[in-house]
Write a structure and sequence with these properties.
The structure holds two protein chains of two kinds. Chain A is built from 15 helices and 14 strands. By secondary structure, chain A is an alpha+beta fold. In chain A, strands 1, 3, 4, 5, 6, 7, 8, 9, 10, 11, 13 and 14 form a twelve-stranded mixed sheet that branches. The longest helix of chain A is centred in the last third of the chain and has 37 residues. The radius of gyration of chain A is 29 Å and the shape is elongated. In chain B, about 30% of the residues lie in helices and about 30% in strands. Chain B contains seven helices and ten strands. Classes of the chains: A alpha+beta, B alpha/beta. Chains A and B meet through α1, α12, α13 and α15 of A and α2 of B.
């Protein structure tokens, strides 16, 4: 702390230059925070995946339905401790742009499968008991201003009712949420009771979209998957079973390799920052050679001078990085609001902060070390005489 | 008076490319504690080189330099830096203040190397500034001060850590006659009233008159020693 005024004065000796450099670092780290948030959001499905959960879909396409009767047969596979299913409803609310996932599920079985979701006990009980009941994700509730107890009119793009109408009405009996922000993105949905849905739909009765299978040992995932798929081999509805994480990663890859894209953009950004900040630091130290010589004259050791120059680079990066990351965090509520819940929630988690700190440290070392070593080698007599 | 500085057979050789330049040829000099010595001589005579050696800014090629019973020519770089911090105050022709810092912060610089807390550092810097008559300019940056005021801030910085030895390289070289007189009177006061040993390089005979003793160098050797009347 005692050297902070000295560092600050050195850093802001040329205010315009340092401010511009600082701004570029701020922008770089703000971009880093935002892109990391996007990447984390895309991978949140995989991150939140439970190693003891498998997903069973139709073998050739996930949109092909499977018979509900498979449930009892899958339950009998050794190592399986629970089975639930879900069916895609394809919903929109009020207009085309208000689309969100709606899944027809067996309430108790489905909620038991996802302990990471938080549902109030009375909401769960109401959902289990109410045939026309529905649970909605907290973010959807906030977005549309829904209230528990109200009617929920939803149109399906896929499933007409027996009377041919595409308009369905459910009773909103509860809210589903998650404590972990990475999981919260997976609660942007509405769950409806399959008992009512299956009875009221015009076609496809007795069929469902996919199965969620809980197993006793994650190490048995491959063997159990093979066992399930073997059950339905050569039947009209063959299955493909895989661990949930594998399924989620495969699904995310269909959109694109977000991680690789983000990494490439950030490498380009930080390489530019490295050149820019390195140039600023080198120029700043070059201009201050006589001042550094004076510090040495006053008794600052070579080591102390090296540390001071390095600390200046660290201060610049910590300032810029901190403000940039702070800006990214500050932008999150606005961005999340702007996406209207159509995108998983964006957030800057502790891992992103740690990574930002590591990058700031590395860049500071790269840009600070060369001028610091130059300052260390400085001979007082030569520097004072202008050589 | 006992010797504060004992210089014996000091030589200094520089190498500029293939050229070998012997700046000092076997200098012997004693500077008693409490003395005020003016090192004089024409350009290239080696007076600044000798001053740098006395202040521990450079090392001799040969010979020995003892200050307060310590062979400073044998100290490592780190030891020499620590020795300078506690034993020597420096005053330069062009003041060499850090332009981004206020007068107060400039004066505090040597105290950053001590264990003193922030308030004590501030207090001592204020005392040093008041000693040179600039307590009301503490918050001013160097560019907001006149040349004479800058040099007085530099002198305050030189004395703030209470060194035994003040090493001054042409301290009035950039000042007008009246301001030079003020600065030299200040150095005289520090020598006379505070017991500081002052070694001052100057080419100005008028400035040298403020010293107790004059030492002349010519082409790297001592040519004469004189005591002003």
């Amino acid at each position: 702390m005692r050297y902070l005024p000295l560092l600050w004065a050195g850093l802001f000796r040329k205010k315009t230059r340092t401010t511009l450099t600082l701004l570029s670092i701020v922008v770089a780290f703000a971009l880093f925070g935002l892109l990391q948030a996007v990447e984390v959001a895309f991978e949140s499905g995989a991150d939140a995946a439970d190693a003891k959960r498998l997903l069973t879909t139709a073998r050739y396409s996930i949109i092909e339905p499977l018979p509900m009767a498979y449930q009892r047969r899958i339950e009998q596979v050794p190592g399986v401790v629970g089975v639930a299913f879900a069916d895609w409803f394809g919903a929109k609310y009020q207009n085309e742009s208000n689309a969100f996932p709606v899944f027809a599920v067996d309430p108790a079985r489905y909620l038991d499968m996802y302990p990471e979701f938080t549902v109030a006990r009375e909401h769960r009980e109401a959902f289990v008991k109410t045939r026309t009941g529905a649970l909605a994700g907290q973010r959807l509730v906030d977005r549309f201003g829904w209230k528990v107890g109200q009617k929920l009119p939803i149109s399906s793009e896929i499933h007409p009712k027996t009377d041919g109408s595409m308009s369905w009405e459910f009773d909103l009996v509860g809210i589903i949420d998650a404590d972990d922000p990475a999981v919260r993105g997976n609660t942007d949905m509405v769950l409806i009771n399959v008992a009512y849905f299956d009875e009221a739909r015009q076609s496809g009765r007795g069929k469902t979209g996919w199965y969620i299978v809980r197993i006793a040992e994650s190490g048995q995932a491959r063997a159990i998957s093979a066992g399930i798929d073997a059950l339905f081999m050569n039947s009209p509805d063959e299955t493909k079973t895989q661990p949930e994480k594998e399924f989620a990663l495969g699904f995310a890859k269909q959109i694109g390799d977000i991680g690789a894209l983000v990494t490439r953009i950030l490498i380009a950004v930080f390489f530019t920052i490295l050149i820019l900040t390195g140039n600023t630091m080198a120029q700043s130290i070059r201009e201050r050679i006589p001042e550094l010589a004076i510090l040495k004259t006053l008794g600052f050791s070579d080591l102390k001078i090296t540390a001071l120059v390095l600390a200046e680079a660290v201060l610049l990066l910590v300032l810029g990085g901190g403000i940039g990351m702070g800006a990214a965090v500050a932008a999150m509520p606005g961005l999340n609001g702007a996406t209207g819940g159509r995108f998983p929630p964006l957030f800057v988690g502790p891992d992103t902060w740690l990574l930002a700190a590591a990058i700031a440290g590395l860049v500071a070392l790269c840009v600070g070390l060369p001028p610091a070593l130059r300052a260390r080698r400085l001979k007082i007599v030569d520097a004072l005489s202008g050589h | 008076m006992t010797s504060l500085v004992e210089i014996r057979g000091v030589t200094k050789i520089y190498h500029r490319g293939r050229e070998r330049i012997e700046v000092l040829h076997g200098i012997d000099l004693d500077i008693p504690r409490g003395d005020f010595v003016a090192l004089m001589g024409p350009s290239g005579s080696g007076k600044t080189t000798l001053l740098n050696l006395i202040g521990g800014l450079d090392r001799p090629t040969g010979g020995s330099i003892v200050v307060e019973d310590r062979r400073i020519d044998q100290l490592s770089g780190g030891e020499l830096a620590a020795w300078r911090a506690s034993h020597v105050g420096f005053v330069f022709q062009f003041y060499n203040l850090l332009p981004a810092l206020s007068a107060q912060r400039n004066v505090e610089l040597p105290l950053l190397l001590t264990d003193l807390g922030a308030s004590e550092r501030r207090r001592r810097a204020r005392i040093a500034l008041s000693l040179v008559g600039l307590e009301d300019r503490a918050r001013h940056k160097p560019r907001e001060l006149s040349g004479g005021q800058e040099q007085r801030v530099a002198i305050a910085r030189a004395i703030v850590s209470d060194p035994t030895l003040l090493v001054c390289d042409e301290p009035t070289g950039d000042l007008d006659r009246a301001t030079a007189h003020e600065v030299l009177r200040l150095l005289q006061m520090l020598n006379r009233d505070h017991g500081k040993t002052v070694v001052m390089v100057t080419h100005d005979p008028k400035a040298a008159e403020y010293a107790r003793r004059r030492v002349h160098l010519d082409k790297g050797t001592m040519s004469a020693e004189a005591v002003p009347a």
